Amino acid sequence: VGFLVSLLMFVMSMIKLGRKTKFIVCFIFLSLYCFICGFTASVMRASLMCIIMLFSNMIGDEYDSLNALGLAGIFILLIFPRDLFSLGFQLSFVCVFMIITLADRLTKCLVGWKISRVIASPISISLCTTVGSALILANSFNELSLLGVLSNLIVIPMFSVVYPFMFVITLVGMIIPFFARILFIPEIILHLIKLIATGVASIKFSTFRIFDLGYAIFFIFLIFAFELKYLMC
Q1: 96 CB neighbour count, 10 Å cutoff
Q2: Mean pLDDT of 192-210
Q3: Among residues 38, 58, 143, 197, which one has the fewest Cβ atoms lying within 10 Å of its Cβ?
Q4: Are 165 and 157 in contact (CB under 8 A)?
Q5: 45 touches 72 (CB < 8 A)
Q6: Please, are residues 66 and 100 in contact by the beta-carbon 8 Å criterion?
Q7: CB–CB of 161/122 below 8 Å?
Q8: What pLDDT, in 10s, does the model give residues 94-113?
Q9: What residues does 207 pair with on adjacent strands?
Q10: How far apart are alpha carbons 6 and 218 in whole angstroms?
């Protein structure tokens, strides 16, 4: 969603459209994209946060990612209340919450340990998403992943590169069919990502069984993450 909005904003900036027009175009585009994706929780969450960010930019107000996340959650649950019990909804919102509250502080700690920010930032995001997803998956499947952080450090950058490439080639291929043949390159990378994920999952010590943590522990950890960002020095 971020890539699509960035691409759309770039095109509209070249045409020199106003803020209000950009917002309306992005709103319509993201609404159609959510419809195409079947209004899945993760796509709706990302789209709503983008819409809130664009609206803040249009009216000249400050954008707050945590408030945007909360508003997106409220909006989705008002329309699809059952999504609260959906694993996709829980994973999407909790992982983003963890990134918002902990990633920046963790990155600063790693940089303080003389680790380059280029490396520290993806490590921080990987750790945050791994911890966030572990809280949900432990309650759902009673399992925790030990190697998830390492595999994410490889898989996430690969997918971040292959998706824009795949999108652009598909778009160009619709105009010039010959370019569609180049899609075999992202297909190879996607297969490689799948092999890495299944390979890590097949390692015996990559996961271990755990007792049911319960949602009480889960919420206590979220409150701690919130306090760490906004209340602690």
Answers
A1: 23
A2: 75
A3: 38
A4: no
A5: yes
A6: yes
A7: no
A8: 889 888 888 888 888 888 88
A9: 145
A10: 34
